[in-house]
Design goal:
The protein has helices at residues 30-50, 61-85, 94-135, 140-158, 167-176, 187-215, 233-252, 260-272, 285-334. By secondary structure, it is mainly α. It has one domain (19-334). The longest helix has 50 residues, at 285-334. It is elongated, with a radius of gyration of 24 Å.
């Protein structure tokens, strides 16, 4: 993805991200401390709710939809916090702006990859519909077409999406961005940077899990160490451990996918295929009817789950994009934009 209006902005290394919490410099007033605590308590609660009681629910499309919804709410929450802090863009350190633009363009890239994969997986629904339609006839000729459609479906869903080739490098850059700039003499800036740290940790976690699920590779799974002094640290560590361990166990079991609904449909297909291999025996008719019913239900559940998740990913994409637009407008209004290319409105992404 390329944006001519976004000049190259390298990541910066700022050392200890929690140097800003040291007693030196500006201290937090009761109001600022209350704003920060409220934000972090809300984040901790989201992390706890995201940690499923039943590990088998991990990487169901329902769980992934909730994870993306939590990410959307958290990004919306940081916008609200910035407003409550009454921290005008003219007071933003240039390094903060550099980091924000760099992170946001990478998030837009990874959203496009997620949307591409969700669309690709949902295309397989058409093949399953062909299977169901042909199975209604119960003729040998139709069974040949059913086998062909099932073969095509298996080949389609097991193929690799090239958009995920650069996913790990994007994730590594996002991890590098977790380091926070050193804040001097700005209590509001300290609150913003600490809150932003929580937003970025959740963002890296969700994107890492999604990338692992969609790419079919645990190499995209990241394990982050967060300081245990943070209010939401324990909730995050519990979530990360449960989710990452479950995903790695699933991959080690030899399954081609960790997506629960997709794996369920694949199991039905594996059961159905031998029944239509050499024609039906009388005793297999009822078993076939049951498998067809299971396939119809599973295919519909998979398609709906993919649709809902695609909509949630699109919501997140728009939140990130609108945030970039808002910052650019504020920079132009304050006269802080010196690069004419940076002052151009951000439009839809170029794929």
């Amino acid at each position: 993805m390329s944006r001519p209006q976004d000049p190259h902005r390298p990541f910066f290394s700022f050392g200890n991200p929690f140097r800003m919490i040291s007693p030196k410099g500006s201290q937090l007033s009761p109001r600022l401390l209350s704003l920060l605590n409220a934000f972090e308590e809300t984040l901790a609660e989201r992390l706890r709710k995201l940690n499923p009681k039943d590990k088998n629910d991990i990487l169901s499309l329902t769980w992934m939809n909730y994870a993306m919804d939590s990410l959307c709410e958290t990004h919306t929450g940081i916008k609200t916090l910035i407003t409550d802090l009454e921290l005008p863009v003219t007071d933003w350190d240039e390094k903060w702006i550099d980091i924000y633009f760099d992170i946001s363009v990478k998030l837009l890239d990874i959203c496009i990859a997620f949307s591409s994969e969700l669309s690709r997986l949902n295309q397989g629904h058409l093949l399953l519909q062909c299977v169901l339609h042909n199975l209604e006839s119960n003729t040998s000729k139709k069974f040949v077409q059913v086998r062909s459609s099932l073969d095509s479906w298996r080949k389609h869903i097991s193929s690799k999406n090239l958009r995920f080739q650069n996913c790990r490098s994007i994730l590594d850059n996002l991890v590098e961005s977790l380091n926070l700039p050193k804040v001097k003499n700005s209590a509001k800036g300290k609150v913003l940077m600490q809150a932003m740290y929580g937003v970025k940790v959740l963002t890296v976690f969700v994107c890492s899990v999604f990338a692992a699920a969609f790419s079919g590779s645990s190499k995209n799974l990241l394990d982050l160490d967060v300081p245990n002094t943070i209010l939401w640290a324990q909730a995050y560590c519990n979530l990360q451990t449960n989710v990452n361990v479950k995903i790695r166990e699933t991959f080690s079991g030899g399954k081609f996918t960790v997506l629960k609904e997709l794996d369920a449909v694949d199991s039905i297909v594996k059961k159905l295929y031998p029944m239509i291999q050499d024609g039906l025996k009388p005793v297999e008719v009822e078993a076939l009817q049951n498998s067809v019913s299971d396939l119809r239900t599973g295919a519909e559940r998979l398609s709906q789950g993919l649709d809902f998740l695609a909509k949630e990913v699109d919501v997140f994409f728009k939140i990130v994009l609108s945030g970039r637009d808002a910052l650019l407008c504020n920079l132009r209004a304050s006269g802080a934009v010196t690069d004419p290319m940076l002052g151009t409105n951000v439009g839809e992404p170029t794929v």
